[in-house]
User: What shape does this take?
Amino acid sequence: MNTWLIFESGPTAQVWTNMTRIKTQRYPKPSKALGQNFLIHESTLNTLAEKICHNDPEILVELGAGTGNLTLALAQRCKRVIAFELDERLVHWHDKQQLLPDNVELRQADILRISYQALWEETGDRLHLAGNLPYNISTQVVFSMCAQNRFIKEAFFLFQKEVADRITSPPGKKDYGTISVVSQYCADVKKILEIPPSMFRPKPKVYSALVQFRFFQGEKPRCDDYEFFVKTVRASFSQRRKKIVNCLSSFFRLEKHLLEAVLNKADISPDIRAERLSVSHFVTLASGLKDIVQKKALPL
Assistant: This one.
């Protein structure tokens, strides 16, 4: 009999060895176009649900319900689950099979177009999010979530391991980039565990990883213009091998002497590369840059 391993990362790393328990329900064929890889290993599903529901959220919002395997595990631990699924085939299949319990509300919607503010107004509290995200839209989900972060308390998402490494990377590492800075500007991010391809059908070619986001509420320095902050970060990483002063000069079409003044005020060397800067550096940099851009009457 086969065994699968789940590797938990962090200083208190543990390894679980679980006997293979595969759900045998006949599911609709996964859609390659929608990036569907269904998590089917029962013990892994239960482990994920325990991690996600560690603080007993009253309402959990699941992005990408798929075949409902994770949904069922979450519903056993939460009073109410609002699950979103884009694939019309799967929504109809759930209507027919009636496998989901009464405390699950399945809604057909594009998770990239969800208004977290509307959900916050509906539920009356900051949101708890979770989901096994399709690989092909996972970074878009992160940026959409971060743009609406004031309505969210916590999120747990499964990503391709490479994306999880980028989200959680500290400064100075090759994985550190725009998604790292934006995620860590909005939340305390932590990679919780890694899951091998054998737990999914179809099997992806890479490992997956569960990442926890705990969103800040006033605890950290903030830029008064979130969109401009993100624009500054993107500009800084637009040409990774170039000095930051050159990246910003090219992107914003500003004279280097003006940028050098802003960088010096932010205690940033003009010769440094973006991957060496902390999140707080980017906050100070974006604020100074915005003042210069406004004075020059350039489009934000």
Q: What stands out?
A: Residues 226-295 form a domain with the Helicase, Ruva Protein; domain 3 fold (CATH 1.10.8.100). The chain is about 35% helix and 20% strand. Residues 65 and 294 are 44 Å apart (CA to CA). Residues 279-295 form the longest helix (17 residues).
